[in-house]
Amino acid sequence: MKLDCFLLFVILILNKQLVHSFIPASIINFLIGKVDNITQNSFGKISETLTHEEIVRRGLAKSITKFFYDQKNGSERINLNKISNDYYDYRNIYFDYYNKTICEPKVKEIMDVELGPNVALVDIDPTTKDMPYAHFDAETFNQSNNRVINFTNAVYNYLSIKNYEKARELTAQILHTIQDFYSHSNWLEMGNTNQINKLIGTSNFSTIPVVDASVNQTCESNCTLVEVPCNNYTQLMVDFLKALNLTKILDCPIKMYRCAGNLVTLDKLVSGFYTGQRLEDGTSVPKPKNMLKCSHGGLIDVDSWLVFPKGGINKDSGYYIFSPRADLHLQSANLAISHTEYYFDQIRKWIGDKEFDNFLELTYTDAELAKISNNVTCTKSIGSTIIKFKSPVLIFNCFILYFLI
Questions:
Q1: Are 277 and 131 in contact (CB under 8 A)?
Q2: What's phi and psi for 130, nearest 5 deg?
Q3: What separation in angstroms does the CA of 31 have from each of 13, 22, 24, 91?
Q4: Least-confidence region, from 35-49, 141-155, 169-183, 209-223
Q5: Which segments within 167-284 are labelled E, that is strand?
Q6: Which first-to-last residue range defines the signal peptide (predicted)?
């Protein structure tokens, strides 16, 4: 078996218990890419999907770009016009500032080893993956905001005692909650297309009107149900997701909801209910059956198919099969990137540039730079091989092996 195929199986085994796994999205991308354009459009891929890790990566890049711009000679070396494109690759920031190729900046390792895994952990950890407070779900806005306040206070406490590793861990985990606000709520539909909610993480958040149990209806059943016939490739996708226990309702023909105008409430914050969520004490938080509340939606959210109103409001991905508002995914992701940038900027403002540098290990001393060769060619890590499977044929063959062994 080829190494790439072996690595794919390792990922499959490790991800069997994930509720929101990013590897399936990559593989589905390849499978859908083999069908005709009409089927692709019907299937629901409307845009690329930005994961929590990628959102943190981009938000952090924008924040540290400004950090280097503000350092000695930074305004002469750093081009702020690159802040939303070239500088997403951290190496380009360092090349422009130090005029030296640094293949693995220390902050990149922090991103890959600490921030990335911890922002994803919230969807994996049994204590948080089904807890609405960790995701701004089930109309728990004030409770979710209190979580942001408590985590942020803890981050600052750890920074004050120079426990940077713990501060980074909690920063990543609470950024997940903040990012979910934009993809799980109706903030975007309320007209906030280019504005982040800076009241998140403050006591003033309570001044924002939010729905609660007294509001009988927040959504209506006017979503469009789309059915797509399966071919060999999409059948593999169906079998794959079932094998991972990610869904009990997916079958051929593939069905999904597209929801454009299902929100009834646009003057108060609304979020959807998600199947299987529970509070910390184990209390179940089901979607009310005697009210017309919004669902999170998507093929993994069983209640969104069984309890009216059907459909949902999440913008977590660029696929309608996972996100009934996939058409708004990139807009909500860009707001999440901006808020991630803002969060790091606030940390920098609170602790100052020197400690911000220590927190993220940003700068290099002359002695460190002298040890880095000027004639270096950067190569991809094994990690990028695991995530980015290049060949649809490889995926197909791996699937065949997966279901035969």
A1: yes
A2: -110, 15
A3: 20, 15, 10, 32
A4: 35-49
A5: 224-228, 254-258
A6: 1-21
- Rounded to whole angstroms, the Cα distance separating 270 from 141 reads 9
C-alpha gyration radius of the chain: 22
Average pLDDT, the chain: 86
**Among residues 155, 156, 150, 149, which one has the least CA distance to residue 203?**
149
Sorting pLDDT into bands at 50, 70 and 90, what band is 20? very low
| pTM of the full structure | 0.87
CA 41 vs CA 38, 154, 286, 321: distances in Å: 5, 45, 32, 11
C-alpha triplet 58, 62, 68: angle, nearest 5°: 135
CA angle 207, 347, 120 (to 5 degrees): 85
Those residues with Cβ within 8 angstroms of residue 253's Cβ, 6 or more apart along the chain or in another chain: 227, 228, 229, 230
The backbone region for 148, taken as left when phi is positive above 0, alpha when psi lies in -120 to 50, beta otherwise, is alpha
Question: Which of 388, 330, 381 shows the shortest CA–CA distance to 30?
Answer: 388
Q: How far apart are CA 24 and CA 29, in angstroms?
A: 8
Q: What are the two backbone dihedrals, phi and then psi, of residue 256, each rounded to the nearest 5 degrees?
A: -155, 155
CA-angle at 318, arms to 312 and 319, nearest 5°: 65
Let me know: does 326 contact 46? Beta carbons within 8 Å: yes
Comparing 216-220, 229-233, 323-327, which segment has the lowest mean pLDDT? Answer: 229-233
